[in-house]
Amino acid sequence: MTQIDFYTKVPDKIHTACRVIAKAMASGMRIMVLTPDAATTDEVDRLLWTHPATGFIPHVRARHRLAAVTPVLVDHDLSGVDRDELLLNLRLDTPEVFSRFQRLVEVVSVDDGDTVAGRARYKFYRERGYGIRVHDLSQSPG
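^ that's the sequence the OP posted. Answer follows.
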């Protein structure tokens, strides 16, 4: 069953996602980052070129010719993606195929709309019996 982690009350959803991606990649995981749209895909792509400041996170779009050998895929469309380790969801809705992944990471910002949508996703997963860990980043030091 998919293990689900919620990172809540994050001030910057994209930067937090990049920190999670870097940590997961350092532990050898293959990651699919699901964005809500092409603009957000571009934003995550740009940030991963410079995050961390002294490194680089290898990443491509899901249908890029090197997708099969690249540890991080970033896209707003999951069609044709055969990953199953870690799905990082930046959308407001519940990804239809989340259950095929070993882990799902949900990043929920302090924005009211994002918080409401995050609570709905949390309730959806909980009602289906998924184990959920919550990481309240408002409680984290700097």
